[in-house]
């Protein structure tokens, strides 16, 4: 690690960083993601010191850090004196390591304290929940000026007022985020499988409980994604613009197949897929990005089974679909429909694979075509 980076980390804990130094340190962490976990722990301790402790307690903690540094330095002074090189770098690094150890030790105690403080004040947080019904999309503006577009059948939970140190929301469904970036107040979206941390960006998150995957699509800026308990440990992934991350659950929370009106459809064997996959975005000829086309009321589907497509259409048009043929349920479709009615969409699909349909007040019934 570059000596100047160590100095910045030390300064972050002692006297604080100016805006330019903050940007430099953040950029370094972006370029060295292997250090993120450690930095995340340190950042948590720093936020605790700055935002959650009274001034007197802050000074007491800082005094303990300084005392630990002095102890570390004294313990190794003989070694340093015998070192022929006696380099400033070797001495500085030793002091910094001592400081980091001290901060981590103190951080454990502070974290416990903050947890109890958080429980004490949790009742003061007023949460808002906004939900879109199937067939309905919505756009909202958050207190910080950020804008979020909600797809159909989506729920977003957010506080009435964000804390000074963190902006957190909880998402079930699909949403497009345009976030106002604040270095000292990160924005985090929590889903069941992952947490997505904004680093100044526009991105889409898809996390429906009845689908077997969660997907994050980055349009611009940067995001850091923390996967929950992936193979027994947390995993961190950084996305670049025009990339997407797909995390596949082994099993969906509820069946992804719309229930047949006569009997359950059989589950056909499917090819084993990667549980975590990074892939580039592939815009269409008119530069439309399929993963976020929904925001402009455009439906794009590529090699989707009728089962999976019907699940999307059920949310899109707000009416249940029932497929009464196993063979038809697993027929695959590729196409696009822009701002069309349900009837028009079904007619488009009929040109790909003939079938009969009936639309009632309560459901859409799909039957095999028999000449």
Automatic annotation (TrEMBL):
> Which domain of life, per UniProt?
Bacteria
The answer to whether the entry has keyword Disulfide bond is: no
This protein's name: FecR family protein
What InterPro entries does this protein map onto? FecR, FecR_C, Ferrdict_sens_TM
Q: Taking every annotated instance into account, which residue ranges of this chain make up the domain Protein FecR C-terminal?
A: 298-366
State the Pfam families in the record: FecR, FecR_C
Species of provenance: Thermoflavifilum aggregans
Spell out where the chain crosses the membrane.
95-114
């Amino acid at each position: 690690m570059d000596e100047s980076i160590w100095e910045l980390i030390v300064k972050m804990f002692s006297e604080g960083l100016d805006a330019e130094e903050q940007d430099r340190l953040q950029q370094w962490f972006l370029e060295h993601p292997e250090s993120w976990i450690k930095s995340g722990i340190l950042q948590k301790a720093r936020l605790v010191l700055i935002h959650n402790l009274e001034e007197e307690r802050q000074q007491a903690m800082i005094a303990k850090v300084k005392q630990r540094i002095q102890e570390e330095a004294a313990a190794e002074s003989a070694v340093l004196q015998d070192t022929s090189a006696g380099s400033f770098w070797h001495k500085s690094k030793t002091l910094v390591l001592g400081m980091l150890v001290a901060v981590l030790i103190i951080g454990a105690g502070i974290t416990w304290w903050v947890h109890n403080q958080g429980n004490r004040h949790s009742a003061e947080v007023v949460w808002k929940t906004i939900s879109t019904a199937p067939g309905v999309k919505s756009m909202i503006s958050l207190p910080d000026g950020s804008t979020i577009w909600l797809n159909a059948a989506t729920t977003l939970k957010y506080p009435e007022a964000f804390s000074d140190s963190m902006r957190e929301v909880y998402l079930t469904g699909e949403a497009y985020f345009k976030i106002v970036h604040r270095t000292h107040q990160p924005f985090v979206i929590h889903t069941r499988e992952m947490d997505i941390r904004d680093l100044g960006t526009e991105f889409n998150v898809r996390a429906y409980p009845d689908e077997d995957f969660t997907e994050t699509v980055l349009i611009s800026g940067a995001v850091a994604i923390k996967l929950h308990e992936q193979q027994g440990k947390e995993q961190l992934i950084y996305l670049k613009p025009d990339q997407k991350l797909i995390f596949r659950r082994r099993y969906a929370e509820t069946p992804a197949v719309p229930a047949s009106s006569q009997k359950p459809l059989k589950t056909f064997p499917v090819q084993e897929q990667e549980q975590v996959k990074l892939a580039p975005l592939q815009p269409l000829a008119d530069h439309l990005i399929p993963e976020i086309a929904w925001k402009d009321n455009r439906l794009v589907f590529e090699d989707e089974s009728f089962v999976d497509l019907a699940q999307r259409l059920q949310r899109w048009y707000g009416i249940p679909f029932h497929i009464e043929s196993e063979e038809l349920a697993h027929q695959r479709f590729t196409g696009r429909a822009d701002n069309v009615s349900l009837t028009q969409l079904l007619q488009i699909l009929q040109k790909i694979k003939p079938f009969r349909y009936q639309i009632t007040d309560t459901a859409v019934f799909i039957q095999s075509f028999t000449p």
